[in-house]
Amino acid sequence: MINKFALGFAVVAAIAVAGVDYISQAQALGKGPGEFSISDYTQSVTSRVGTLVGPEPVGPVVMAKSHLPEAPDGWERRSWTPPEGATSAAAGLLALKDSLMSKLTASPEASGDEASMDAELTAAARADRNIWEYIGPTGTIRLSAALVPSAGEAFAEMMANDPEAANVVLRSSGRPVEMGEIGGVTYYAAKHDEFDSSGEKPIFLRGYIGNDIVITAYADGDSKTLLDLLLAIDYDALNAMQAKPAWDIGSDARPFSDRKRATFLKRAGQLERAAAKSSARTAKADTAVKDSGPQRLTAQGKQGGLFTGVGGDAAGNSERADGGVKRLNLNSDACRTSSVGKFCGSN
């Protein structure tokens, strides 16, 4: 049975202790018992107990890559490994990287999350952390998402001051080629991704959420599936990774209309055709150089008379000197081979 006297004593003792603690807390704040409200006292107890217990344990770091979509039906999603010898930053990105590093060290958001991890990761480690590759029957697509403090701000500064150095495709007017706005993110046609600077691949895109989230995309052969994947990205979750989330992103963004879809696919087709023409020109030029080398050398020799046959002129026509003695044409000067000790072209 419950000991009622013991229970009553415990209750009275607890009330007495609470009363003493209440008075001491009020005095510590310079207030009288009537001026220190019960809600203020309750909050003080909560804060003190929380301090004794300690902060909540920090969960595992969530990578931005985890907010990229699953593979569509008939496609496979897998980690991607860059080709051997690839670097973690292409030449065109070095200026942007230098601009970021000075801000990274001073950024309060750069600790305790993905951004605080080793900035000098190898290319393979960086690709594994940021990129998903999608393999399907109609092409190959790579998507990348990363938390890089101040990346969006640095990109905006570069576009304003030196757009030629930014990794974007520029029109003849100097304006960047915009593919469209998806989930509140403006995607730009890029010249290469982080691991491919050839400039001959079909479609490279890049976009920014606020200042800290970078999204890049590569597609070879299927721009429609690329668009569907971009639409399926969890922009709300990516935006929430930032210390200061951006406005009008994800569920708050303007809807993606049929007109925007048509514009995106039209510009993707233009990029694919431009890449195909560039590859064809490169292949043609390589073939021309390979085939023309021996011909050019022969032509140069004929012009100087170096590759004529014995008893022939610069055109290779056969002739004989009087008496049947052969002549050798050298630099258009005729020499009788029978004239021993006489250097051709001397008097």
Helices and strands in order:
Elements: H1 4-28, H2 38-53, E1 76-79, H3 94-106, H4 123-130, E2 131-136, E3 139-147, H5 151-161, E4 178-182, E5 185-189, E6 203-209, E7 213-220, H6 223-232, H7 235-240, H8 258-304, E8 327-330, E9 333-336
Antiparallel strand pairs: 1-2, 2-3, 3-7, 4-5, 5-6, 6-7, 8-9
What does this structure look like?
With 347 residues, the protein is of the alpha+beta class. The chain folds into 3 domains: 50 residues, no CATH class; 219 residues, no CATH class; 43 residues, no CATH class. The protein has 8 helices and 9 strands. It has a 7-stranded antiparallel β-sheet. A two-stranded antiparallel ribbon has the order 8-9. The C terminus is likely disordered.
